[in-house]
């Protein structure tokens, strides 16, 4: 049971945690904190939070659990703003998509990573943002990755784990570096490809016509290019090393593919496509949760 | 009104054309031809075709309209097999995803491109294949691109246009070269990226774990990597030039993006992402038909 939860950044991620814990009766008071007063007032109207403030120091003053759901670029400022008001027993966790930068921010602000800071990342979200988009089921059957350090207090890890399990999530732990590599591969790289593809087409002279003939497969493929540009700039800067490595690996793959096309090496192309299809089909079979839409929608040629 | 339609390749594309024309009462007899006897017999059971044969020459003998819906790699063989049995007034059209190779195949087989051959491409499909997957509405509100040559008989173009309009499609005409460029950009390149991404992840040591943490955005993004490898090998070989040019263009884009990440140029990254998001959002708004799912589904970070 959390007595007083402070949520810094009451958007889709923070708002959905509040709704889920409330629905489970696992929290007492919820204090919402953020920069947009309009969004905070809406959160209050919707009953997502009980009290609002734009001052992080005030938000955390009596909290036993603090959840940071601000963009990666705002993490350090938020930690600095709350530093001197945190109760010693307060547990702080976050929802940042990159963990090395959050750990670095904590070191910069506290001089070390506080034992009761538990870096975390719920692998969930939608394209929509703001408290309006939040819902209690967002984390059900989703994975949450925690990346505790050697100095992290195990009891704090246990409480954060319990909090996410209450929301229906499956919690796993891994190292900060490994988390950032896995996310670079499965999320950050795909977003770069979608942004890069749409941008390169948008810059072609006949781009309006190009998009006119794009079909359903293109719509699915480029959906993630509609994500928040500022959030993604922050992710790129925060996960620079792991993402650069994945981009280089992908570059080698695409050079091989392009070379095979240039020299009409059908056998090698078939090998690449068959291996990819097998891996993708296996992934969809294994994927939890299995969405009914797992193989809906179309892929036009 | 088509008196006798011969469909060479009774799969998703050929079967759906048969169903649509039948539903519209716009066709007399439909003869189905293909290599898989099992699929042909199923087509007969389902009432998609009235008569079946594995011999293209026999299939087209009395046809006034012939639709070629075989993989690009099988086009030349199919044209050669029917060449001497076509009635002089018969119109031949196809559904190939690349038009330059079909025109080249026709030249090779007939010594010139027959005036009553109308190269075409319905921009529609699903991941599923075979006659079982065919349905009468596949082409409704979809685009069909025809690429007639200077020597193509306008009356033949008019009849093929009418055939597709009967299926509910919007028919437009463009040059062979332009079609192949537009499709390289909107369909062939995205498929290369999806295949390349999934393959490069599948080849990582910890690939099972990688895929385990992949979320919904990844599922959407890589859906097209589940497409038929043989069909895609053929498309790559058939559209080698235009696709190679698009791959090169995309390579330049990704090099710029990777460089910006390496040097932490947040301003340039933001510019790229914002331009891509604007183009993608504009595209979804304009997209016809607007699917209810146009911005459903999630994009995890």
Might you state the CATH topology name of the largest domain in chain A?
A: Rossmann fold
Spatial sequence of strands, sheet with the most strands of chain A:
3-2-1-4-5-6
Q: CATH superfamily name of the largest domain in chain A?
A: NAD(P)-binding Rossmann-like Domain
What value does the Rg of chain A take, in angstroms? 21 Å
What's the end-to-end separation of chain A, in Å?
53 Å
H/E element order of chain A: EHEHEHEHEHEEEHEHHHHHH
Shape of chain A: elongated
Low-confidence stretches of chain A: 288-301
Give the tally of β-strands of chain A: 9
Tell me the greatest interface.
A-B, 108 and 107 residues
% residues in beta strands of chain A: 5-15%
Number of domains of chain A: 2
The major sheet of chain A is characterized as: 6 strands, parallel
Give the fraction of residues assigned to helices of chain A.
40-55%
The CATH architecture designation of the largest domain in chain A is 3-Layer(aba) Sandwich
Oligomer: homodimer
Name the CATH class of the largest domain in chain A.
Answer: Alpha Beta
Task: Report the mean per-residue pLDDT of chain A as an integer.
Answer: 92
Q: What class do helices, strands and sheet pairing of chain A give?
A: alpha/beta
């Amino acid at each position: 049971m959390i007595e007083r939860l402070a949520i810094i950044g009451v958007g889709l991620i923070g708002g959905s945690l509040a709704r889920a814990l409330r629905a489970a009766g696992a929290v007492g008071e919820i204090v919402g904190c953020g920069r947009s007063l309009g969004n905070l007032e809406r959160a209050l109207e919707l009953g997502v939070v009980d009290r609002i403030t734009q001052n992080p120091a005030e938000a955390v003053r009596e909290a036993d659990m603090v959840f940071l759901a601000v963009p990666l670029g705002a993490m350090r400022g938020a930690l600095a703003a709350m530093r001197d008001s945190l109760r010693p027993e307060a547990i702080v966790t976050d929802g940042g998509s990159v963990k090395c930068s959050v750990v670095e921010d904590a070191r910069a602000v506290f001089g070390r990573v506080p034992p009761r800071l538990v870096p975390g990342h719920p692998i969930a979200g939608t394209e929509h943002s703001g408290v309006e988009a939040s819902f209690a089921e967002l984390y059900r059957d989703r994975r949450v990755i925690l990346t505790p350090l050697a100095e992290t207090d195990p009891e704090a890890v246990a409480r954060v784990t319990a909090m996410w399990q209450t929301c229906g999530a499956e919690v796993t732990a891994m190292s900060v570096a490994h988390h950032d590599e896995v996310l670079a591969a499965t999320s950050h790289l795909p977003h770069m490809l979608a942004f890069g593809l749409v941008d390169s087409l948008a810059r072609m002279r006949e781009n309006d016509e190009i998009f006119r003939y794009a079909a359903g497969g293109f719509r699915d493929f480029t959906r993630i290019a509609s994500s928040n540009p500022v959030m993604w700039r922050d992710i790129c800067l925060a996960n620079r090393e792991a993402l650069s490595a994945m981009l280089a690996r992908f570059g080698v793959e695409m050079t091989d593919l392009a070379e095979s096309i240039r020299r009409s090496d059908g056998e090698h192309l078939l090998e690449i496509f068959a291996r990819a299809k097998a891996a993708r089909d296996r992934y969809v079979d294994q994927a939890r949760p299995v969405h009914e839409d797992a193989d809906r929608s179309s892929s036009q040629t």
